[in-house]
Amino acid sequence: MKTRRWVGLGIAFALAAVTVGTAQAAEDKQGQGEPTPVAAVAASSAVDQPISRSEVITRAHHWLTAWNGGPVPYDQGRSFEGYRQDCSGFVSMAWRTGIAHNTVSLPNVSHRIAKGDLKPGDVIGTLGPGTGGDNGHVVIFENWANDAQTSYIGIEQAGSPGHTVRRAIPYPYFGGDTRYLPWRYNKIVDSPPADRVSDVNSDGFGDLVAVDANGELFGYNNASLVSENRVPFTSETWRVRGSNWSDVKHLASGDVTGDGFADLVGVQGSSLVVYANGSLVNPGGMPFGGVTWTYQGDWSGVRQLTVSDVTGDGFGDLVLVDAGGALVVYANGSKVNPQGRPFSSETWRIGGNWSGVQHLGSADINRDGFGDLVAVDANGELFGYNNASLVSGDRKPFTSETWRIRGGNWSGVRHFTVMDASGDGYADVVAVEADGSLSVYSNGSLVNPGGVPFGGVTWKIKGNWSGVRTVA
């Protein structure tokens, strides 16, 4: 998983951007209880089994809002969701260990690493003999806050401010306490490569691309790392002035070229068009200019279109519902096709009738490295097909429905796309609602009942999006 950094931001600004409560100038005396057995908590991993870094971070973030919408209170004498509500209980929860460890026993399931080896889901703390009670503390490392690696984003269950907090912390901890050392859980595993759906600037977070009422293409780069409450979209980042995308239908975003920057794919007239991302070479860093590849033929009958890494090879594949209502997958052939053209002919035709589907999106919903399907059916219910490439015959990616939100009504949604807006490796849904508001539904697979990925709205984005022609 790519380590995310705030390039060019000072520590003071980083603190202001992510601190919940007031950062202390010296080490907290946190206090903690004794190791205790735990109950099961919803997750994609099993207790005391290998767990991905992205799941550790997602589980840690969960406690920031799990207490009636707010952070879980600090209390070494109480437990929440089966884990003690102190610093080491919090780490045990995130690592999904079989008991709620304290700082004395955490070294039994972890090992020392060097500062330069720190990755998301590792910890920094005072661990081992003599660190019981107020003598020890531990913080989950999320990512470096600056290039100099003098400050990092940590998530901790802290005595001050008295609850779960995510904030910038000077390395190794407040007050420069050199007893704080980096550790790694023995069963943590690196997450699969992220599917670069909608990641226009290659920072690991999904960005929003849209066409306005006048046909101009514009974008909102993801602001999760610097915005209040991690709201992903706060202001327009770029706009292709004078452009006219009014005749482009079914616009989708995904990394077709495999360079880490999301490209655009759409239907223009009767042709399929691909706009390769040129952020690194275009004037002013503008991501999109002219058409890179045009596919002639009659694509005008396409009902739905989306792009994601369905095959898990790092290149975005094309998934569409054709004029006859069939679901068709065009695997990316950039490595073998003439001139590196991404698509040549259909690879799989999925059974069933998809003609009634109102919206279709694809991205990695369950963080296994393969693009999954999310769709709204004719009755307005949201449902999903998890990718089955590793277990199906002929590596066919979509074979059967995995989940469905019964009784939901998404029929009023104007536009719909799927991307990793929160940057945790689990794709979220972004939708323009019937009233013109833009909503982000954060993926809650690890914490929602039954592992259903989507529940209520997580963020409402300011502005009126009713005139937007499409979002990707």
From TrEMBL:
SUPFAM superfamilies: Cysteine proteinases, Integrin alpha N-terminal domain. This is VCBS repeat-containing protein. The keyword Membrane does not apply. Residues 1-25 form the signal peptide. Keywords: Signal. InterPro entries: Integrin_alpha_N, Papain-like_cys_pep_sf. Coiled coil: none annotated.
